[in-house]
Amino acid sequence: MMTKHASSSAKAYSRRSFLTRSGLVGCSLAASPLLTPVSFAAAPWDSRLVVIILRGGMDALDVVQPYGDPAYAGLRSSLLGGPQNGALDLDGYFALHPALAPLMPLWQAQQLGFVHAVSTPYRNKRSHFDGQDLLEAGTPGLHERRDGWLNRLLQVTPGVEARTAFAIGQGDMKLLQGSAPVSDWSPDAQIALSPQAERLAGLMMEQDPLFHAALGEALDLARDARDNAANAARRGKRSRPHQRIADYAATQLRGDTRIAAFSINGWDTHNRQTGALTRALGRLSDTILTLKAGLGAGIWDKTAVVAMTEFGRTARENGTGGTDHGTGGAMVLAGGAIRGGRVHGHWPGLDEAALFDRRDLMPTGDVRAQVGWIMRGMIGVRHQDIANVIFPGVEMTTDPGLLRL
């Protein structure tokens, strides 16, 4: 584990080099706890926000299936959904992919919802790299800023410290990059110290508050991870990486942490989409349910989980049982703070003339505006900070009513 966005001196480098070379810390340099200080301060709000990036371009029309649209059946053959093909009816017009069946109790409890026909401002080129870059930067154009919108949220919020936000997992999360302090953790990072080595490291650092605090934080995180793994083993469960990430996020969110962000891969379904999407949705379902179980009812009730993807996929399936890169997609929302049990957004229809470039689901909403309203309702972020700093240029007109609050 390390904390981003702090400087290190020559003294820090020398001490870090000695410790890593001497074998006191059995972890990679990227996971070293000895780089920067960590604060345990809580954020000035009590709600929790979990952002999940669905990397690869999730096919919204297969996840939340518009079987009530007259043009839907003509666009899909092997991917045709709806209740007659095993999907779960949501509201008489949309149906849920059967791989998300474990989440139906959340839908019925109005703790699961969707926003359909949304996208970032990204158009036409349909590149994963550019689409994800824009999604995490939250800007209207490519390469305008190097920081991420979640980090800018922290920048405009007084009283935020490093343990307020966690970027969790192995990938680079631009979403939380920036000048505000953010903690990183990977489920595969290990800190292996014997009791004697731990005591020696502590003695070496007790006169240096920067390193002493960082070492203590890293050892606490390692113990948390080991305890989580041991508890899962006692329950007879072999957790998979996405479940370990969700379990760890829940552990931190039960404490001072208020924001957690990570990604789930596997949404690029150019061919044989049925199997690939089923597996990806299974991981998403596991992740949401692991978060709910780990948070407990009290914290889950004030949590919003927001899952978003860089773009949707073509309305018409291709010749290999898949779909190609598209434009309009969908957001998945879960948590006790969410006004669930409904498909939000303005549905544009699937007639050819209604499609974007006559091939993609037409975006009728901006994912940035949806997240902006969630921030405003849960955290109390000022409207001008959302529109001018966090999501430059975003238009926030009418509150879409995504929250119970």
Automatic annotation (TrEMBL):
Entry-linked Pfam families: DUF1501
Coiled coil: none
Organism expressing this protein natively: Phaeobacter porticola
Protein name: Twin-arginine translocation pathway signal
InterPro entries given in the database record: DUF1501, TAT_signal, TAT_signal_bac_arc
Signal peptide: none
